Amino acid sequence: MAQDGVNMGRRRFLLATTGALGAVGAVGVAIPFVRSWNPSEKARAVGAPTVVDVSKVRVGQLITEMWRGKPIYITRRSAEMMATLESDEARRRLRDPDSRVQDQQPDWAVNDYRSRDESELLILEGVCTHLGCAPTFAPDVRPQPYDPNWQGGFYCPCHGSRFDLAGRVYSDVPAPTNLVVPPYFIEDGIATIGLEEAA
User: Which of 41, 129, 184, 189 has the most CB within a 10 Å radius?
Assistant: First the structure.
């Protein structure tokens, strides 16, 4: 109904429409602004840290993330899996059981588990050290066509290299060194790959 020549229904409609369009425009501007806070793909490729929630990774589950253009394997090992890493029999089959080759892991990962604080979490670069293929994860302890005494670990289908559940290389395979452990730290169930401690 018009009062003094003003159509109130039309005015309310125009105000509501203007408000809705303004809200859509604000969201449209905010989304790219918020996205700009994240590192670009180019920045990640040259080394920006990758952040991963590892609190929900289950025992025997493998998740894959990317850092510096390489796949990063993250898995959680059971107490039984961890125990196999310490056995003398298993260590005898390895080329570098004590992780003596430099630049394959940070100093804190020079242990039987190749993890921080002897954690059940394992974080590795998923790149075979022979020719750069991606090893498959085979955590089950059971005979395999490539190893009748398989104790679980990683198998590279390209040329048959094998690695244990700490990424340590077997002595009779083409791969010359253990899988690489990237720098990382874990805080409140969040792994930051690419940094060794919080800034």
Answer: 184
Number of H helices, E strands in the chain: 4, 11
How many C-beta atoms surround the C-beta of residue 115 within 10 A? 23
Quote the CA–CA distance of 69 and 123 in Å, as a whole number.
Answer: 16
Q: What is the pTM of this model?
A: 0.75
Q: What is the DSSP string of 92-144?
A: HTBS-TT--STTSS-GGG-STT-SGGG-SEEEEE---TTT---PEEE---S-B
CA 199 and chain centroid, separation: 20
Angle value at C-alpha 191, between 59 and 157, nearest 5 degrees: 55
* pLDDT tens-digit map of 126-175: 999 999 999 999 999 999 999 999 999 999 999 999 999 999 999 999 99
Tokens of 124: 């590795």
pLDDT band at 36; cut points 50, 70, 90: low
Sign, CA torsion 106/111/113/117: negative
Start-to-end Cα distance in the chain: 64
